[in-house]
Design brief:
Shape of chain A: globular
Oligomer: heterodimer
Number of helices of chain B: 0
Distance between the termini of chain A: 38 Å
Helix content of chain A: under 10%
Structural class of chain A: mainly beta
Largest sheet of chain A: 6 strands, mixed
Radius of gyration of chain A: 13 Å
Order of helices and strands of chain B: EEEEEEEEEEE
Largest sheet of chain B: 7 strands, mixed
Radius of gyration of chain B: 13 Å
Largest interface: A-B, 23 and 26 residues
Chain lengths: 111, 112
């Protein structure tokens, strides 16, 4: 049973535009929601994370918006750059330190 | 500070063989988790170790096992390999359980 649904599967954005990736979860016991960025041939790298008692967190060009009542959270990448082209995974932590991942979004930022 | 290191980086095995993968966590990190990444199933949790004890286990068959040593280094073993075990195996470490996990580069296993 997939507990974290991620959309879209792929996304093409123009340089300087805003990239938005959405995730929805089912398990209300999740207590921590990180986003990871993965480049080909590399392991996932932590981008930004949020706890459910916060509605928004911003770090540089990256912002997480969190809607606890809707059980949804999203990643916004402002001023998207070609170097941001990668696969992005949302995740949710529950059951100890176990991360449940979304299916990933392949982002391509075009010049 | 060095990141999570995994060895070997690439591995080719044949069906029925067994394999052992190694993970060295970030210095000072005591919790290690393992994940399997495949195109079809995505990233799936295998197990988590802390203080040499398995704290949590994912939904994988008993052919998948692991252990953690007193220096926090961890190994995972897959016995009787199947074609479907071909995947990128990722190790992640955190200071303590419930802390942020940092991933290594993974070991890419190909089963022929």
């Amino acid at each position: 049973q997939q507990q974290v649904k991620q959309s879209p599967q792929s996304l093409i954005v123009q340089k300087g535009g805003i990239s938005i990736i959405n995730c929805a979860y089912e398990n209300t016991a999740f207590d921590y929601f990180p986003w990871y960025q993965q480049f080909p041939g590399k392991g996932p790298a932590l981008l930004i994370a949020i706890r459910p008692d916060v509605s928004e967190k911003k770090e540089g060009r990256f912002t997480i918006s969190f809607n606890k009542s809707a059980k949804q959270f999203s990643l916004h990448i402002m001023d998207s750059q070609p170097g941001d082209s990668a696969t992005y995974f949302c995740a949710a932590r529950g059951g100890g330190n176990k991360l449940t991942f979304g299916t990933g979004t392949q982002l391509k930022v075009e010049l | 500070k060095a990141g999570v290191t995994q060895t070997p980086r690439y591995l080719i095995k044949t069906r029925g063989q067994q394999v052992t993968l190694s993970c060295s966590p970030i210095s000072g990190h005591r919790s290690v988790s393992w994940y399997q990444q495949t195109p079809g199933q995505g990233l799936q949790f295998l197990f988590e170790y802390f203080s040499e004890t398995q704290r949590n286990k994912g939904n994988f068959p008993g052919r998948f096992s692991g252990r953690q040593f007193s220096n926090s280094r961890s190994e995972m073993n897959v016995s009787t390999l199947e074609l479907g075990d071909s995947a990128l195996y990722l190790c992640a470490s955190s200071l303590e359980p419930q802390e942020t996990q940092y991933f290594g580069p993974g070991t890419r296993l190909l089963v022929l």
